[in-house]
Amino acid sequence: MDMSTSNTLKIEDLTNSGSNIKALIASAVRGVLDDPDFGLELSDETIARLALARSDKNPKTISISALKKKYLDIKSLYRS
Q: Is the pLDDT confidence value at 21 over 70?
């Protein structure tokens, strides 16, 4: 498979308009420079807490369907 044809943004699209390339580069640079956490590292304690949370068999999360049910039911109470 030819890689140039499998991408959404094709090389010929970029070469036809230099402003597209400039906009892509500017957007990428802005994304890095605007990140307030750029250059910061996680502490060992935070890394350990994240690893523990990831390995938890009973995560403290709520599915989107449970949230919808909870809050849609509350809205219906206010409408009555």
A: yes
